[in-house]
């Protein structure tokens, strides 16, 4: 026990990922692929003959495998950006891509994986985080032929899925690193604002019960409102916008950005968190766990004390709580791996198998 808190592929076609800008030329070239899960049954009771799982990989498949899981509506390119990959994937770094086989799948409902906007719209099966984890597991086992993972690590939605991975497949990995997440069910302000995000889009007449011809205007404003209201990073926001004029400039920049999301996809993916609750299964987690959160994360407010009270239920777990500062960005702090890269490296050394 070391519970403590620290402040401070057979069917796939591989393609070179030229559209994705990765962190440095010293890294292996990312490749992307699709794998199809046949006969997929969802927890809702609905089924699809084929579920497409899109993913990218870096490194040699014969090396120890690391599974990285993205956040809600987060493009995979974010996990290849200098602030993340540039701090983690390079030579001698924690997830050195010459030593590990890094797998980054797109969850059901995201990117190039199967999603409502492919054609079914609101007739697409309703999925949840557990369904996403099942699809990821099938990709790893059936698609890539990998029987064991060195690490499962995820951010936000991917962090919550990391908790589920530890419970559903406790012998599958050597270590777990959930980031910007907690094991408790969605509740309080976090769920209330997710619910309002969904209701705002559904309440827009242009949504037309999901049969819109153009993206409903509310999609953009609701998303911006949700992001500003729930991300946190209070000190950083005040540092960037100490006057109303500068605050307006930040808002204007967001309003001017093009809409890249689809409203139905948006409703589905935010709704997929509704029944998330890893609390009842915490005692099933056997892999050592490093939990990384930020003190200024408004979606997972530290003042609730929920996580600290649950730590004793986990066999081997420690919490790295990154202090708030003008450099942190609340829920988005995890995309700046400089705040935890050294601790992650130490954790992996401690959990290495002899």
TrEMBL record:
<protein>
    <submittedName>
        <fullName>Alpha/beta fold hydrolase</fullName>
    </submittedName>
</protein>
<dbReference type="InterPro" id="IPR029058">
    <property type="entry name" value="AB_hydrolase_fold"/>
</dbReference>
<feature type="domain" description="AB hydrolase-1">
    <location>
        <begin position="64"/>
        <end position="306"/>
    </location>
</feature>
<feature type="signal peptide">
    <location>
        <begin position="1"/>
        <end position="23"/>
    </location>
</feature>
<keyword id="KW-0378">Hydrolase</keyword>
<dbReference type="GO" id="GO:0016787">
    <property type="term" value="F:hydrolase activity"/>
</dbReference>
<keyword id="KW-0808">Transferase</keyword>
<dbReference type="Pfam" id="PF00561">
    <property type="entry name" value="Abhydrolase_1"/>
</dbReference>
<dbReference type="InterPro" id="IPR000073">
    <property type="entry name" value="AB_hydrolase_1"/>
</dbReference>
<keyword id="KW-0732">Signal</keyword>
<dbReference type="InterPro" id="IPR008220">
    <property type="entry name" value="HAT_MetX-like"/>
</dbReference>
């Amino acid at each position: 026990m070391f519970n403590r808190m620290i402040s401070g592929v057979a069917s796939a076609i591989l393609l070179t990922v030229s559209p994705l800008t990765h962190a440095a030329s010293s890294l292996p070239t990312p490749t992307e692929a699709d794998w199809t899960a046949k006969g997929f049954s969802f927890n809702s009771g609905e089924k699809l003959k084929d579920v497409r799982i899109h993913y990218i990989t870096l490194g040699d498949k014969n090396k120890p495998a690391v599974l990285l899981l993205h956040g809600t509506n987060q493009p995979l390119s974010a996990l290849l950006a200098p602030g993340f990959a540039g701090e983690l994937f390079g030579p001698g770094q924690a997830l050195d891509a010459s030593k590990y086989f890094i797998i980054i799948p797109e969850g059901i409902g995201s990117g190039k994986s199967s999603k409502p906007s492919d054609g079914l719209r609101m007739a697409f099966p309703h999925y949840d985080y557990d369904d996403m984890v099942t699809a990821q597991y099938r990709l790893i086992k059936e698609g890539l032929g990998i029987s064991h993972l060195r690490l499962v690590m995820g951010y936000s939605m991917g962090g919550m899925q990391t908790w589920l991975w530890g419970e559903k497949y406790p012998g599958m990995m050597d270590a777990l690193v959930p980031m910007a997440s907690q094991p408790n069910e969605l509740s309080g302000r976090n769920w209330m604002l997710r619910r309002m995000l969904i209701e705002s889009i559904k309440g827009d007449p242009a949504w037309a019960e999901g049969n819109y011809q153009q993206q409903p205007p509310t999609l953009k404003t609701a998303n911006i409102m949700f992001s500003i209201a729930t991300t946190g990073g209070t000190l950083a926001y005040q540092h960037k916008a100490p006057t109303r004029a500068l605050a307006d400039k930040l808002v204007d920049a967001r309003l001017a950005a093009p809409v890249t999301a689809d409203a139905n996809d948006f409703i589905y993916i935010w709704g997929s968190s509704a029944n998330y609750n890893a609390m009842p299964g915490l005692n099933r987690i056997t892999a050592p766990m490093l939990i990384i959160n930020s003190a200024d994360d408004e979606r997972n407010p530290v003042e609730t004390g929920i996580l600290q009270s649950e730590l004793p239920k986990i066999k081997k777990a420690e919490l790295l709580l990154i202090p708030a500062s003008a450099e942190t960005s609340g829920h988005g702090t995890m995309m700046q791996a400089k705040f935890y890269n050294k601790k992650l490296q130490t954790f992996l050394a401690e959990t290495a198998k002899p």
